[in-house]
Amino acid sequence: MIRSITKQKSEEEIDRLLDGLNRIFIVGCGTCVTLTQTGGEAQVESMKEALSNKGKLITGQTVVPVACDNLTGEILEDFGSQIEQADAMLIMTCAYGVQTMANQLKKMVVPALDTLFIGKETSLGQFNETCTQCGTCVLGETGGICPVTSCHKGLVNGPCGGTNNGKCEIDDAKDCAWTMIYNRLKDLGRLEAMRKYQQPRNHQGEPSPGKFNVPVMENGL
After folding, report:
1. In the chain, what are the domain boundaries?
2. Buried-exposed string 113-152: b where 16+ CB fall within 10 A, e elsewhere
3. Is the pTM higher than 0.70?
4. CA 126 to chain centre
5. How many whole angstroms separate alpha carbon 147 and alpha carbon 139?
6. Where are the beta strands (DSSP E) in the chain?
7. CB-side neighbour CA atoms (13 Å) of 4
């Protein structure tokens, strides 16, 4: 399952963002941040206690099922009076959730977390980055293994000279991405794909801010 991976902002940054805002409503999320333990029930309760100890008045708190869903605004209507009393909403979700609530509610929103990357749970409690959404996908030449996210150096032409017995020189507990790519292509009988030189990456495959329009066909087809 793919998740937005987050970490809590430093106490100093949260204090700065909430400076002058004394009545706070706290929102967590029941999906990604609950799994990563950065914005679930326990973390929302802990944040409430920490802010209360600093003299903030918590007007209310909740953990919505999916913060980035279009129904989030409707769900929060049940807390209308508590949100109305607040100077700001402290949002313990990924950036998508923060922006969703900012667009749906006429209230100051303050993010409590930093969104790091899109990741997949590879073992219990461990999430690894799977895609940077760079817009210049080379998976067709690498057997479905992404060198941008699997290689510490992000090399699209590899391996480097530091691989050692199939391990990465930066992290000897990590398999070398290009050794994995070699083995995958060998098993598929596609080793010749490694001979193709990849042009220097365009680190901005899509001009920012990104925008994508689905063509509308006649008669809606």
Report:
1. 2-116, 132-195
2. bebebbbeeeeeeebeeeeeebeeebeebbbebbbbbbbe
3. yes
4. 14
5. 8
6. 2-8, 23-29, 57-64, 88-91, 109-111, 113-123, 126-131
7. 23
Cβ within 8 Å of residue 75, ≥6 positions away: 64, 65
* Interval 42-78: pLDDT, tens: 999 999 999 999 999 999 999 999 998 888 989 999 9
Q: How far is CA 96 from CA 145, 189, 203, in A?
A: 27, 41, 22
76: number of CA atoms within 13 Å, CB side?
A: 31
CB count, 10 Å around CB of 195? 7
Q: What is the pLDDT of residues 107-144, one digit of tens each?
A: 999 999 999 888 887 788 788 887 887 778 888 889 99
Looking up tokens 């989030």 gives 72
CATH architecture of residue range(s) 2-116: 3-Layer(aba) Sandwich (3.40)
Match 């980055």 to its residue by tokens.
129
Residue whose pair of structure tokens reads 């990849």 in the numeric block: 198
Torsion of CA 88, 53, 72, 115, to 10 degrees: 90
d(CA 111, CA 196): 44
pLDDT tens profile 84-94: 999 999 999 99
CA–CA distance, 198 with 214 (Å, rounded to integer): 29
Based on its alpha-carbon atoms, the radius of gyration of the chain, rounded to whole angstroms, reads 22
